[in-house]
Amino acid sequence: QVQLVESGGGSVQAGGSLRLSCAASGRTFSMSVMGWFRQAPGKEREFVAHITWSGGNTYYADSVKGRFTISRDNAKTTVYLQMNSLKPEDTAVYYCAASVVGSGGYDHWGQGTQVTVSS
Q1: Which secondary-structure segment (H or E) carries 49?
Q2: Three-class SS of residue 29?
Q3: What is the Cα–Cα distance from 83 to 80, expressed in whole angstroms?
């Protein structure tokens, strides 16, 4: 099993920045991809970004491209999401997720952290 714990959420004004962290523990050697998702009130959960654990390849949703940056620290088994130029529409609960080797999807999820952007 892999356990994921997010931190770093909070409230910020539009145009501001926040950095989310996701600390992984347990069978972290089995992780292949780590991603960030978000869910706004009344909406479905949506993909934000992901990073491959070994090669560090990244991919972003169009809505955050150029504003958000995903990165990882292999030694700390932690993934970060640097969010700049935040907009009110970025308000959501942000979730970290991990996909293990051989899986076709995300197998482990964190509890989520709230991000609120005011105009």
Answers
A1: strand 46-52
A2: helix
A3: 10
Spell 47-59 as b/e; 16+ CB within 10 A means b.
bbbbbebeeeeee
Per-residue pLDDT reduced to its tens digit, 1-17: 899 999 999 999 999 99
Contact 32, 100 (CB under 8 A): yes
pLDDT in tens, 64-93: 999 999 999 988 899 999 999 999 999 999
How far apart are alpha carbons 18 and 97 in whole angstroms? 19
The DSSP output letter for 58 is E
What is the C-alpha to C-alpha distance for residues 119 and 117, in angstroms, rounded to an integer?
A: 7
Q: CA nearest 48: which of 2, 7, 83?
A: 83
Question: From CA 77, how far away is CA 89, in angstroms rounded?
Answer: 29
